[in-house]
Amino acid sequence: MGKKTKKVASDLAALKAEVALLKKEVTQLRTEQDAKLRAELDNLHKRINSELEQAKQGAEREEKKTKGKVLNLEHRAARAKGELKAGAEARTARIRRKAASLRPQKDYEEPEERPSVY
User: Which distant-in-sequence residues (6+ apart) come within 8 Å of 91 by Cβ?
Assistant: First the structure.
């Protein structure tokens, strides 16, 4: 082999080693990015579930409170006579309509379980 051929072979080997090193670095970076993205997704799922749970609990509290008001007014209406009874029944009907309008509408999608792609 000539001097030039050895030099070319040496340069080629060095370039191949550098390519292998860069491939290894790319693989490592992808692994780190995947882990970071998975952690972010997990965090977002937790936040979504927390927000939904809080909304659900708030709706349940409001519904319980409304039911208590309705029962109270129904008892008062049952004991009342004439105009008082009609007024209590009207207030009961208003509260029921308001409660129905405050119930959360399902205009959102429940989050899916975590994807099994991980």
Answer: 73
